[in-house]
DNA sequence: ATGACGTGAGTATCACGA
């Protein structure tokens, strides 16, 4: 099963290229972040025509997440039950009766020392408790989306100001590490231990993509049961940077994993 | 560099992104 995540920076102007990418890459599940519309404005029909069911958690103008799946979508949960939030940022479900998927759009944070950074850090602190509760459930678990954190210096281009800047501050990196310490693996890093210049987001300004001045801030975290166990295995994963070359692209690239269910005798 | 782009709301310009 191929499960992809993509911050599309508004789904409606991006619809033709999202449909094109689906036809080329054939994901079974596509989790979208920053759809920037309400449920009734979401382009459900074009995705249904490609064979997807849609679960949408929208918001007017900002944020919003959705899960498209060729298999049954069950046990839908919107946002974190332990965190009061008037923004639409988390959508959880179980796919095909076995794979639990959490689709997350972590707040931007604006800058260190601002109220928005406080909100981001509160969000991440509570997100950890929420994920802890999900790891107690029986299903293999993957958590993917836009985390807005570049976990290590390896995940930011060389000229980035790493110590004080949003995405790279010690506070944000600590919050991300604490998530991993629950027992989750950063799948794309596990498959690319030494790789540098492996990025998922490039600023629209200053030709950042052309000079590969990016950050790796979109991630897919996997429980040990999902990553490699007698029952399940992640056999491959990647960052698909080619859509960043499209006309009117999202500033984020899609990321994906292939997870295999190993048949019991 | 208090910049650069891009999107939504709304129809001039601002909030927001990261």
What does this 3D model show about the protein?
It is a single chain. The chain is α+β, with helices and mostly antiparallel strands and 265 residues long. The chain has one domain: Endonuclease/exonuclease/phosphatase (Deoxyribonuclease I, Chain A, 4-Layer Sandwich), CATH 3.60.10.10. Helix content is 23%, strand content 28%. It has a six-stranded mixed β-sheet with strand order 3-4-2-1-14-13. Strands 5-6-7-8-12-9 form a six-stranded mixed β-sheet. Strands 10-11 form a two-stranded antiparallel sheet. A hairpin with a 3-residue loop joins strand 6 and strand 7. Helix 3 runs parallel beside helix 4. The mean pLDDT is 97. The structure holds one DNA strand of 18 nucleotides.
Topology:
Blueprint: E1 2-7, H1 11-25, E2 29-33, H2 44-49, E3 53-57, E4 65-69, E5 73-78, E6 90-95, E7 99-105, H3 115-135, E8 141-146, H4 170-180, E9 184-186, H5 187-190, E10 201-202, E11 214-215, E12 218-223, H6 224-227, E13 232-239, E14 255-261
Parallel strand pairs: 1-2, 7-8
Antiparallel strand pairs: 1-14, 2-4, 3-4, 5-6, 6-7, 8-12, 9-12, 10-11, 13-14
Helix pairs in contact: 3-4
The structure holds one DNA strand of 18 nucleotides.
Question: Can you give me a brief rundown of this structure?
Answer:
This protein is α+β, with helices and mostly antiparallel strands.
């Amino acid at each position: 099963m191929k499960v992809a995540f993509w911050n599309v920076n508004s789904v409606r102007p991006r619809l033709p290229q999202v449909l094109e990418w689906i036809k080329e890459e054939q994901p079974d599940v596509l989790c979208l972040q920053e759809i920037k519309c309400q449920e009734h404005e979401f382009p459900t029909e074009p995705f249904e025509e490609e064979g997807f069911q849609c679960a949408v958690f929208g918001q007017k103008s900002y944020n919003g997440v959705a899960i498209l799946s060729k298999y049954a979508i069950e046990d839908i949960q919107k946002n974190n039950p332990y965190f009061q939030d008037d923004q639409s940022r988390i959508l959880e479900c179980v796919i095909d009766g076995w794979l639990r998927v959490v689709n997350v759009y972590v707040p931007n944070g604006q800058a260190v020392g601002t109220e928005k950074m406080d909100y981001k850090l509160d969000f991440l602190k509570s997100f950890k408790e929420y994920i802890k509760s999900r790891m107690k459930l029986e299903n293999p678990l993957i958590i993917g989306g836009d985390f807005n954190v570049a976990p290590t210096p390896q995940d930011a281009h060389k000229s980035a100001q790493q110590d004080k800047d949003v995405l790279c501050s010690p506070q944000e990196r600590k919050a991300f590490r604490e998530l991993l310490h629950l027992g989750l693996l950063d799948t794309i890093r596990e498959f690319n231990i030494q790789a540098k210049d492996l990025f998922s987001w490039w600023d629209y300004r200053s030709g950042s993509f052309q000079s590969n001045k990016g950050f790796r801030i979109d991630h897919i975290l996997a429980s040990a049961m999902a990553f490699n166990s007698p029952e399940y295995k992640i056999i491959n994963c990647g960052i698909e940077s080619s859509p960043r070359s499209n006309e009117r692209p999202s500033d984020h690239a899609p990321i994906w994993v292939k997870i295999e269910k190993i048949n019991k005798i």
